[in-house]
Fold:
Amino acid sequence: MKLLYDAALVPLRGASYLYGLWPRRTPEATLERDQRMGRRLPSPPPGALWIHGASVGEARIVGALARGVRRLRPALPLVASSVTRTGRAMIPQEPEVDAAFFLPLDFRSVQRRAFEALRPGGVVLVETEIWPNLLAEAAARRVPSCLVNGRLAPERLSRYRLLGALYGPALSHLAAVGAASDAEAARFAALGVKEGALVVTGNVKFDLAAPAVDPAPLRARFGLDARRPVFVAGSTAAGEDPLVLRAFVEVRRAHPGLFLVLAPRHPERVPGMMERIAALGLSAHPLSARDDGKAGRADVLVVDTLGELAALYALGAVSFVGGSLVPVGGHNLLEPVAAGSVVVFGPHVGHVAEVAAALDACGAGHRVADPDALASAIARLIADPDERERRIRAGRDWLVLHRGALARSVELVLATLDGSLR
Structure:
């Protein structure tokens, strides 16, 4: 099985070599290529803690863990990695993290080079980042590793079981798995993680600080009248932007002044999005233009920068979280709740199923079946401030009840590093 896994990665390695021959590559792109091959990596002092998260959402957890560890172990070197460019851009800089880099490809030879450069004293993986060769190399060097905020989407459990000969040994290398919930813990147990290595720490995203943003100055920044309703659509996926825009146009028939904040999950889709907005007869202002005071003259503020969405949710009377009207699995539903906005999401929420169900149950969230239902929900919630306030209050109360996972996860990381787990 390990040979088949390595063979499946060969095209990635070949693509990396071919990319190295491209004459117009930038220095940044060359560095990315080299780091993915396990070269030009940071050289921290021996014994550094290596924290890894895949992309933007996980990078926020990486930052929170790094800050928590640094408070308790200020002298401990910390390095962090990410798979995606957007995630790499979101990893905190010094003094929170000493160095950041792209995760090397999961070939054994590449991971061997990475460990020789980094010389870590411990490895922390976030959520679903289970890399067999990375974990095997850590085990071979007796470097303790753990998984924090562990998640396994229910629909992927059968795939992990099918590849049990690959993922079973990988999971066995982990000194500890901190599961995000009881249900997640049950799924890890079903894959063979032993009871002694499994602990329910809770979902760290509950503890990620709500943006300290007052909507009033934020509205002033963008030239938005205090009475103008705002709809925020965050982390939209490919194929989802037209659906959101269609709902927006529909709602504007009843609420002509409605303003849209549209934040795609991947900023590289922005040029096509701008064309689509113009084709609908709407005007758009890109956030990167930085002439923020003119945004309110447009119909749509397009968020083409990183790291600002969590705060911008505070503008929304209603917020939609993407990856849920199309079969992606949904993204972070907690950010708009923490920011004081009513959260709406579609039917495809497998990656955040438990959070979505809890938001449904406490009345804080609103699940819709399709774009037409999205338009109806937005229009109704904008017209009913009492219902909005009830849902916002329910969401904030629910968040308070579920905090504490970050402290438990930091404790698990340090116990792993110290070898004090029982």
In short: Residues 215-401 form a domain with the Rossmann fold fold (CATH 3.40.50.2000). The longest strand covers residues 120-126.
